[in-house]
Amino acid sequence: MKFTRTVLRCSTLALIAASPALFAQDYPNKPVRLIVGFAPGGGTDVFARIIGNEMTRAFGQQIIVDNRSGANGVVAANLVSRATPDGYTVMIILSSHVINALSYKDLQFDAINDFTPVTALATTPYVLTVHPSLPVNSVQELIALAKAKPGSINYASAGNGSIPHLFQELMDSKVGIKLTHVPFNGSAPALTDQLAGRVPLLMQSVLQCMPHLKSNRLKALAITAGKRNAALPDVPTLAESGVPGYDADQWWAMVTPRGLPKPIQTRLHGELVKIVLAPKTKEYLASQGLEAMGTTPEQLSTIMKNEYAKWAPLFKQGLVKPE
Q: Which residues lie closer than 8 Å to 52 by C-beta, 6 or more apart?
């Protein structure tokens, strides 16, 4: 009897130890919820649906995009930070997820440590775009107009501390101009008001603005990266346009709640890297101004920490104020 109990106990312990691996082999066996912290139609939403469609094909389970917009992604991140870490709640974040730790005084989560990193998916520069009603056709003309009429030019953003906000403030600080910030609840509403001519200036992703550049509803003055983008080869960089040393881009990444079992993290990482580095996906992303990444979880963790360090000085100098 004692021998039997010992065998049963050892068998039970072995099963418990093996359960994460067994769970990973069966993962996913039901739909996965992909949380997006911004409104439908924005650049992050568009990108999430591209990745979600490919995940559905790879996993054979429906990936359901769930938009939870608000506070520059904070609403969604708070939800995900409290979710069960079982692989059935995942989130696409962008650079501003980390910057929110600087932008908001009373976050109820740690933007880095309360999430399990999976992989950085892609990166893209932003484009300084203007509505045709604003009488400028270059960065230098914009700077001249802003200096002649300080505070008279409005620029939109996806919210206080968002990427469009920080990228514009970085430019303004480098050339000594003052524009008026008009924050929106996400990039899609900001774009809507720009297209209507109510707020003429907006820094936005290549992915979001490309259709409107092609239709001439918006004009591109420059891109934020240190080199020109293959999707917009004729658009100069800000550095080329008289903003010395300007070099910034946005990245997208996949994270889950903290505590995701390692086998599930490994499975998610492997499939996502296959998706973003597949020739067809890379080609499509490049046509939209994005560069595929496919980092390791450890590399993504480093990217997140570096992003925080990069933007902290703007807040320390008071150029961007936390809420």
A: 34, 63, 64, 65
Bond into 322 cis (ω within 30):
no
Q: Is the pTM of this model over 0.85?
A: no
**What is the per-residue pLDDT across 170-220, written as a single tens digit (0 to 9) for each?**
999 999 999 999 999 888 899 999 999 999 999 998 888 999 999 999 999
Q: How far apart are the first and last CA of the chain?
A: 66
- Indicate the number of domains in the chain: 2
Q: Which residues lie across from 64 on neighbouring strands?
A: 33
Residues 63 and 203 in one domain: no
Of 223, 246, 222, 235, which Cα lies nearest the Cα of 169?
246
Provide the domain limits for residue 107: 7-124+250-316
Centroid of chain to Cα 135: 31
Grouping H, G, I as helix, E, B as strand and the rest as coil, residue 310 is: helix
Give the span between the Cα atoms of 174 and 172, in whole angstroms.
Answer: 5
Question: Cα(9)–Cα(52) distance, rounded to whole angstroms?
Answer: 42
